Amino acid sequence: MQIAERTVASFHYTLTSPEGQVIDSSRGREPLPYLHGVGQIVPGLEKAMAGRVVGDSFQVVVPASEGYGEHNPEMLQAVPRSAFPADAELAPGMQFEAQGPMGPITVVVAAVEADTVTIDANHPLAGMPLHFDIEIVEVREASVEEVLHGHVHGPGGHHH
Ligand code: ZN
After folding, report:
1. How many angstroms separate the alpha carbon of residue 157 from the centre of ligand 1?
2. Domain at 48, CATH number
3. What's the pLDDT score for residue 32?
4. Domain-located, residue 156
5. Are residues 24 and 55 in the same domain?
6. Residue ranges for the chain with pLDDT beneath 70
7. pLDDT at 83
8. Angstrom distance (rounded) from CA 54 to CA 10
């Protein structure tokens, strides 16, 4: 069976930066299941998955525009240092949750000055080409319920 609309595929992945640093990997864990065609994984990777079968291994470089998006400078924002707890030790690279217009978002501290802190609401991987090493472990037909819900049920997916 090939990966296509209305199939659930489980795969192992290793994600590395352009410098070869491992950012995330499913190795040593269960493979990641996803419902194809609904945007559960980044668009460039989903595109590369179409037509693959169990046992396929491949590498793909997904440009930022088809990954977590380009880095948008408008999502950098200077906020007063006083908006943070006085005892918070702030340093560039720190991540924390903030309330965004559509719910909680992860923001990264970009710079710390005496009176202001610059925060970056871009995805931490925005602007980065993503190097994926993929192995397809399982491909099966999605159930009607999964297609209706737009996500995977069972091991590695939703339980409800
Ligand atoms: Zn569901």
Report:
1. 9
2. 3.10.50.40
3. 95
4. no
5. yes
6. none
7. 87
8. 9
**What is the model's pLDDT at position 99?**
79
For residue 40, the CA-to-ligand 1 centroid distance in Å is: 13
Look up the domain containing 105 and give its range.
73-120
Answer yes or no: do 135 and 100 share one domain. no
Residue pair 73/122 in contact (Cβ under 8 Å)? The answer is: no
Q: Which of 40, 112, 105 is nearest to 75 (CA)?
A: 105
> How many angstroms separate the alpha carbon of residue 123 from the centre of ligand 1?
26
| pTM listed for this prediction | 0.80
Q: Phi and psi for 91 in degrees, rounded to 5? A: -145, 145
pLDDT at 34: 97
Q: Ligand 1 center to residue 13 CA distance, Å?
A: 24
Cα 137 to ligand 1 centre (Å): 22
- Say yes or no: 56 and 11 in one domain: yes
Distance separating alpha carbons of residues 48 and 101, to the nearest angstrom? 32
The H or E element that residue 58 is part of is strand 57-62
